[in-house]
């Protein structure tokens, strides 16, 4: 959960990152003019010419770089007195101390001051062709009204409001309204189940929830309000639930529920940034809401799915909304390329300037298709690497030199202020090129996470303990001969299904709740569309006699219900036992090799308790395929 109240530095960086993203997403000479005009002025660095030199300086003298950018690009109600007070060896991250700003003022008021009629949001509703546009003026009004409503109902500075809504203007206004009154927001992805929602509400200690009666996605209605009602059974702290109407269908209201009215819309033209992420994920926070709005851009809120009502949806939308930059996930690209080029070619994509990719490695086939078919070979594809914890893009093929090559499937170059290093298994920095290691960051930057809510020790243990003095990303990376970075994947037991990261332990936790299950182990395997799929090994309790097919269905249902549909296993293999070390740890490395059918790569089995367990697992796997 992010805390957007007051002067959180995360959003400071997001806004800047978006600006630079916007700059490099333009391919024309205009972008260079923008950057040339903006950067030296921003940084007070008239002597520095070219983006490569500027990036160099952003790392070697990061303090004056970020100070100048923060002063130039943001409105502060109280100026900061200390640029930074960070110590990575202790996980201490402090930026712009003494400074105060309001992120909603930065996203709205200053643009309303200069251009109130500019379109801020284009809501690409699920029903094709029914898009709605909101100006900065309208968004400010909606945000202020909501802020007042929340305040009238007792929400105050420091409270945490849970937002359980689909990607829509009211959700954006709710985020900004919280930020405006100094409350934190806890945006929960609308695909999450009642249990997952309840857990997040409890963790955030929210007393206020904002939701809609029903959601619509891919033509299907989802009962969001009913899900909230179910979650409420285990959330005694919640005092009020605001309910807006996304559809016309009334829902049962309880004493706790407060109906919200709908607002005025109008239509205007504007520049259009089309990031199709859901606001329930960090990409939506940084590149749908805060980044674009802080920079006065027009942003698209995509409510639907890439294949509703047909696989041409994205490109039809690009034509209709005249989208200039399209930012999406490899999983969707892989899905769409299977349907064929005709779904793309039907539509006019001439407004597109650049195509962005985020969330997982983009494989060569998908990259080529995105570039050749979607972008007609004329739009650069930028593979952007970053994480929830980094707040914004960290490594991407930036046009520090607009003529520089872009290598397919490579995030390539570190962004301003980002100083990546690769570590070997001994914790030593690898200095040469053409090498792989654990990806760490040697310097802090304003957008990085500063803590884990209610668990600062976990923050330190996870990100700063593994490589003292460095921020550990958890990813592995390769640095090429030319010094470009390629992300190779997660180093820990987290899998990435369709761009959604999920800990294998979370899925095991649910599977293990089934009374018939003794234990389980979940691993990811390479999936041609989803990036990774979920493969579960399940050991039944002794004496249990069930049909495996029935139990599989039951387990899939449990995972869908308790976590989300995407987490539900593609394969469930029943086994007598799991391969374990003598100290009792499941050897996941071995399981991963088995599901990838890489028996050559099983590696060192000397710590294995009983080698026969591996043979059984291999046989079971072969039977299942
Ligand atoms: C993890 C972060 C970034 C916002 C959406 C996901 C993987 C992300 C790339 C990329 C290869 C990537 C990493 C990272 N990832 N972008 N361009 N190439 N891998 O945010 O849920 O915090 O996940 O996604 O493994 O650590 P997240």
UniProtKB/TrEMBL annotation:
Coiled coil: none annotated. Keywords: ATP-binding, Ligase, Nucleotide-binding. Residues 506-585 form the AMP-binding enzyme C-terminal domain. It catalyses: acetate + ATP + CoA = acetyl-CoA + AMP + diphosphate; propanoate + ATP + CoA = propanoyl-CoA + AMP + diphosphate. Gene3D superfamilies: 3.30.300.30, N-terminal domain of ligase-like (3.40.50.12780). Its EC number is 6.2.1.1, 6.2.1.17. One of its GO terms (biological process) is acetyl-CoA biosynthetic process. GO terms for molecular function: acetate-CoA ligase activity; ATP binding; propionate-CoA ligase activity. Residues 109-241, 245-445 form the AMP-dependent synthetase/ligase domain. Residues 53-107 form the Acetyl-coenzyme A synthetase N-terminal domain. This is Propionate--CoA ligase. It comes from Astatotilapia calliptera.
């Amino acid at each position: 959960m992010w805390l957007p109240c007051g002067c959180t530095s995360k959003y400071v960086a997001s806004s800047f990152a978006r600006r630079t993203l916007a700059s490099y997403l333009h391919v024309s000479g205009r972008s260079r003019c923008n950057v040339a005009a903006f950067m030296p002025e921003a940084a007070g660095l008239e002597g520095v010419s070219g983006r490569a030199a500027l990036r160099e300086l952003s790392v070697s003298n990061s303090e004056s770089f970020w100070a100048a950018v923060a002063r130039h690009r943001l409105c502060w109600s109280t100026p900061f007195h200390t640029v930074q007070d960070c110590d990575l060896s202790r996980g201490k991250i402090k930026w712009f101390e003494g400074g105060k700003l309001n992120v909603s003022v930065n996203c709205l008021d200053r643009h309303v001051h200069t251009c109130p009629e500019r379109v801020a949001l284009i809501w690409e509703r699920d029903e094709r062709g029914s898009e709605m546009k909101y100006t900065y003026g309208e968004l400010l009004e909606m945000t202020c009204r909501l802020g007042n409503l929340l305040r009238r109902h007792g929400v105050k500075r420091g409270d945490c409001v849970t937002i359980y809504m689909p990607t829509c203007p009211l959700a954006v206004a709710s985020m900004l309204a919280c930020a405006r009154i100094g409350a934190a927001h806890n945006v929960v992805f609308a695909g999450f189940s009642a249990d997952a929602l309840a857990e997040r509400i409890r963790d955030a200690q929210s007393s206020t929830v904002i939701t809609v009666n029903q959601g619509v996605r891919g033509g299907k209605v989802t009962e969001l309000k009913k899900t909230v009602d179910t979650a409420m059974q285990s959330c005694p702290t919640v005092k009020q639930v605001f309910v807006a109407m996304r559809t016309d269908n009334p829902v049962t209201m309880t004493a706790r529920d407060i109906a919200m009215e709908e607002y005025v819309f109008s239509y205007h033209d504007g520049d259009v940034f089309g990031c199709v992420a859901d606001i329930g994920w960090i990409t939506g926070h940084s590149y749908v809401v805060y980044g674009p709005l802080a920079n006065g851009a027009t942003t698209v809120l995509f409510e639907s799915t890439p294949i509703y009502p047909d696989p041409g949806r994205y490109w039809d939308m690009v034509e209709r909304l005249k989208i200039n930059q399209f930012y999406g996930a490899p999983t969707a690209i892989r899905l769409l390329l299977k349907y064929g080029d005709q779904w793309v070619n039907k539509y006019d994509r001439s407004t597109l300037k650049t195509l962005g990719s985020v969330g997982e490695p983009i494989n060569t086939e998908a990259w080529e298709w995105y570039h050749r078919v979607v972008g007609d070979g004329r739009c650069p594809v930028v593979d952007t690497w970053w994480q929830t914890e980094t707040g914004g893009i960290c490594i991407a093929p930036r046009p520090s030199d607009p003529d520089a090559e872009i290598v397919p499937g490579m995030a390539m170059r570190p962004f301003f202020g980002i100083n990546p290093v690769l570590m070997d298994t001994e914790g030593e920095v690898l200095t040469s090129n053409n090498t792989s290691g654990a990806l760490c960051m040697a310097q802090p930057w304003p957008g990085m996470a500063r803590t884990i809510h209610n668990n600062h020790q976990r923050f330190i243990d996870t990100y700063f303990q593994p490589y003292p003095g460095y921020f550990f990303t958890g990813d592995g990376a390769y640095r090429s001969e030319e010094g470009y970075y390629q992300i190779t994947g997660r180093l820990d037991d987290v899998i990435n299904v369709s761009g959604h990261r999920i800990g294998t332990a979370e899925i095991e936790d649910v599977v293990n709740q089934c009374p018939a299950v003794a234990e389980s182990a979940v691993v990811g395997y390479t999936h041609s569309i989803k990036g990774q799929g979920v493969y579960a090994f399940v050991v039944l309790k002794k004496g249990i006699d069930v049909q495996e097919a029935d139990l599989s269905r039951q387990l899939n249902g449990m995972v869908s219900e308790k976590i989300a549909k995407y987490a539900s296993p593609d394969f469930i293999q029943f086994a007598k036992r799991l391969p374990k070390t003598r100290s009792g740890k499941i050897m996941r490395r071995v399981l991963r090799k088995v599901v990838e059918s890489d028996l050559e790569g099983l590696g060192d089995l000397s710590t294995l308790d009983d080698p026969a367990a591996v043979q059984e697992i291999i046989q079971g796997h072969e039977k299942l395929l």
